[in-house]
Amino acid sequence: ELKLDMQRLAPRVSYLTQVTADVIKQFNSKKRSRNLLDFSDYEHFALRVLMNDDGTPSEIADMYRQQFEEILVDEYQDTNRVQEKILSCIKRGNESDGNLFMVGDVKQSIYKFRLARPDLFLEKYNTYSMDGEECQRIDLHKNFRSRSEVVDTVNRIFTKIMDIKLGGIAYDESASLRACAAFPSNKECKSELILMEKPERDTGISAKA
Q1: For residue range 138-188, what is the model confidence (pLDDT) as tens digits?
Q2: No. of H helices and E strands in the chain?
Q3: Any idea of the CA torsion for 84, 88, 90, 96, to the nearest 10 degrees?
Q4: To the nearest 5 percent, what fractions of the chain are helix, strand and coil?
């Protein structure tokens, strides 16, 4: 039955695919006619320059690979597949002898609507180890921005509500923060949790029974 459904849907899916391709082609044509580029264009044009048709790095990618001594990527949890491919074209070596250094926190991933893939970060987080000779992970726990009252409260809350199902990572001892900033002692500094009730929506419609 499943195969039969797929056979029946195939022509419709093919048609929708063609419509999508036509819209993209027309949209790109309109942008080019007005000399416009968006951020996605920059990514895909860069990839077109750095990658051959067979998916291998181009000569230009080889030139950049020799030019860059180190590649440092911040907010890696918000990287998408295109950006990951760009990096793979210009980085040297592999995980054991490469020149790519990534910093990120999957708990701060907020750009899935831009096609960010936090699973790219999680894949490396789960593969690399603290004492790994080939793929080393460095956990950054120390917090120098906030008082211990704030850090302890954040840890207490997220330990209860964040797990692998919710955020892709467990908020355990390895994910918790450590308060390391030296603040003047102040007994009045306490964390406060303010709960706000969302008011019911006023539709402006009244009714009488």
Answers
A1: 888 899 999 999 999 999 999 998 888 877 888 888 889 999 988 888 888
A2: 7, 4
A3: 120
A4: 50, 5, 45
